[in-house]
Specification:
By secondary structure, the protein is α+β, with helices and mostly antiparallel strands. Helix content is 41%, strand content 15%. A hairpin with a 5-residue loop joins β1 and β2. The chain is globular and about 50 Å long. The chain binds zinc ion.
Length: 219
């Protein structure tokens, strides 16, 4: 089980690179081990090219490493806080992806002006508080912002994106979609004011995408 999760989490880091969400060693993915108070996360400061399943670090839900030779990501405390407080979340992703972070730098939520946003996020992508790394401040900001919100992504002010999902892959998908819509809405705004989608239509789109769209085995 843990070996499979190491492979999954390691492989998903390649998706961050493939989708241009990360520069140098920034960004990280983690995944919760089902049925155990453990999660697997990227080691700190290791090049994406050098990541292997064996270099992933297993941590307890306080963020303390329990298995692995390397130190875990410097964002481990934030991931651990999310797992402790959001039992439905089994994957967490953090990036400084360009367009989403540009919105975060302004502290402005991305308005829901695209059907793809209604589908994936069920509304605007919200902004979380400014928080310094280390300790529980980032994790608390992520949890407080996403609680009671349909969005799977939050723009942490002056920082970047945290995305969550029912699996590590779903969290990576949310991070990819967050950057995609951040870019499109940014471009749209250069040409004028994007048009909002009526809240009732946002609800209908979200419900359809979450419950009807895709292959049954996907869900
Ligand atoms: Zn960061």
């Amino acid at each position: 089980m843990i070996e499979e999760l190491r492979e999954t989490v390691c492989g998903l880091h390649a998706e961050l690179v493939r989708n241009n969400l990360v520069a140098w060693t920034a960004g990280n993915v983690s995944g919760r081990l089902p049925g155990a108070d453990l999660f697997v996360i990227k080691p700190s400061g290791v090049s994406y090219d050098d990541l292997t399943p064996g270099s992933m670090v297993v941590c307890d839900l306080d963020g303390a490493p329990v298995e692995g030779a390397l130190a875990p990501s410097s964002d481990t405390a934030a991931h651990a806080y999310v797992y402790r407080h959001m039992p439905q979340v089994n994957g967490v992703v953090h990036t400084h992806s360009t367009y989403a972070s540009a919105w975060a730098a302004r502290g402005e939520p991305i308005p829901c002006v695209l059907t793809a946003m209604a589908d994936e996020f069920g509304g605007a992508i919200p902004v979380g508080p400014f928080a310094l790394i280390g300790g529980d401040d980032i994790g608390r900001g992520v949890v407080e912002t996403l609680s009671g919100h349909r969005s799977r992504a939050v723009l942490m002010r002056n920082h970047g994106v945290f995305a969550v999902g029912e699996s590590p892959k779903a969290a990576v998908k949310a991070a990819v979609m967050c950057e995609d819509v951040a870019r499109t809405v940014h471009l749209s705004r250069q040409l004028g004011e994007p048009l909002p989608i009526a809240p009732a239509d946002v609800d209908r789109l979200y419900d359809r995408y979450q419950n009807v769209y895709g292959q049954r085995s996907d869900r």
